[in-house]
Amino acid sequence: MSNLENETNQNNLSDIIPVKNETTQLDDVKSINSLINIQVDEIFKKKVNFLGLMQQIFGVISIIGGVIWCLSIVGVLFGSQFLDIIIKFIIGILSIMIGIKSFKSGNAYKKSMLTLEGNDLKNGLTIYSDVMKFTLILYIVSFLFYIMIIIRIVSIL
What angle do CA 64, 138, 123 make, to 5 degrees? Predict the structure, then answer.
């Protein structure tokens, strides 16, 4: 390169305006309202209705199971240990809460396919998120309960 070209390049570099590098933070994204368009065809309607029905069925089964777990409180009369009864009651209450929320979520899914309202689908997904939180808690409590049973069995041997 000649001296003239070097001077020209240096002059051009000094004329460049610095660009501010901006990144979008996660908090900024959360505050943005956005729309999601979903193509609703007959197959999609059938699938979402099926999901709603299955959530309602599992919700009823979960409620029945929770009631049975809660009825094990009657074990106090037959000499069950207090901690066992408390854990069974917690498992029962969590199962009932999961069942109720699952049923409501399924109902919102089915309603969203009748009205074609996005808020109903959003509501169903939001409620189902709560179902998953309660299910995680239920798994943890159940796991601890089974560990207690194993410890008791090993201590007897």
Answer: 75
